[in-house]
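Summary for the steering committee. One of the milestones for this cycle was to obtain a three-dimensional model of the protein with flavin-adenine dinucleotide bound, which we needed before selecting residues for the alanine scan. The sequence and ligand used are listed below.
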Amino acid sequence: MMKPDYKELDTLVIGAGQAGIAMSEHLSRQDVPHLVLEKNRIAEAWRSCRWDSLVANGPAWHDRFPGLEFSNTSPESFVPKEQVADYFNEYVKKFDLPVKTGVEVLSAVKNKNSSGFTVETTAGTYQVERIVSATGPFQTPVIPSIAPTDEELCQIHSADYRNPQQLPEGAVLVVGAGSSGVQIAEELRQSGKTVYLSVGPHDRPPRRYRGRDFVWWLGVLGLWEASASEPGKEHVTIAVSGANGGKTIDFRQLAAEGIRLVGRTQAFANDCVIFDHDLADNIRLGDENYLSLLDRADAYVEQNGLDLPEEPDARTLLPDPDCMLNPTYQLNLRQAGVSAIIWATGYSTDYSWLKVEAFNEQNRPVHHRGVANYPGVYFLGLPWLSRRGSSFIWGVWHDAKFIADQIVIQRQYQQYRN
Ligand SMILES: Cc1cc2nc3c(=O)[nH]c(=O)nc-3n(C[C@H](O)[C@H](O)[C@H](O)COP(=O)(O)OP(=O)(O)OC[C@H]3O[C@@H](n4cnc5c(N)ncnc54)[C@H](O)[C@@H]3O)c2cc1C
């Protein structure tokens, strides 16, 4: 077993998902001595924390780091999750990055009367000057407290969903209609199950428009670079999918396929689940969001004189489905034969190991573009860390570059007349 590298270790990166790997590449480029510690395997989240059929949300030409293309796949394809994990392993090899797997960081404490931190791990103690937390934006699955206590119901978080065969016979309620909830609901429906999908506020960009994928449109329109979500849209999820070759998420189409859409899940009582009266509003706002991106795309084409084929059919919406016209506000789970609930309700973070005052009252990191308000601590990979793209594969690489620059600047000050 490797011995801890006392004093000589400048920067410790915790986590070897895409964020930790990007960080290591940039630190290596700038000759910053560092080590990445990963408690599991490289890109473990892609390997074992996603359902079997998951593919990347963005096409292979986009959802990658600049230094390596996906091998054996078309640039327009949506890469299966195992291949994404393989890609990051290949990346570590290609750039010879110092990653040590199977080592968990248990605690990091600021040294008293000396610079740096003492870091306890399952492989001994490290003394480091700086810490980059790349432990992931989606760490701890969140199931809201309204979840019923009925032990006969099978309840799992989307993080634990793998495939339809895993569920007991009977209908399923999927709560949450972001990218995960929608894809899981559709897979369950295609397997023959009766599916109820609880739909909250969402954005739903067109998968492709006028021959270009939405990732391209967000890029040229500068929307990946937006530094904060629009006011009032902080809790709006985005419904987008690369499944089945990639298609626009269309709730009207899902209803036509037999998925029973309901509003936001509000409460459970006496075998019943109560839904908000917001389904029609949520779907209409989603449609508005979809159409507004088409408008912006058309304006961009015109302003720049681009020769992209017109696509007027993209503006034709299916009629309002019955579930919008005659909404279900209450469902008796037993009578409806619902035997399982899948909570596609998101994740929180866990920084219990990082024992420094770098958090606010809600236990969220306080930082500017990943540079914590606590000297020597950096965060990477979080949603909106610096921009919309921050928690996505390509965006984290750019955030890591900025943080590496900041670390180099601090090292220069520390080395001044040293
Ligand atoms: C279902 C789903 C689909 C997604 N699809 C896409 C997509 O298609 N394209 C895209 O760009 N983004 C996608 N994302 C978003 C994002 O890219 C992934 O969540 C990605 O895994 C985040 O990478 P990360 O490195 O920040 O965190 P993670 O991949 O979670 O890596 C963090 C690592 O830190 C390790 N770790 C945590 N605590 C410790 C500790 N104390 N000591 C040592 N190691 C520790 C973990 O084991 C883990 O390996 C998706 C997210 C989800 C949930």
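Key point for the committee: Residues 14-20, 37-40, 44-46, 50, 56-58, 63, 104-105, 134-138, 180, 353, 381, 391-393 surround flavin-adenine dinucleotide (CB under 6 Å).
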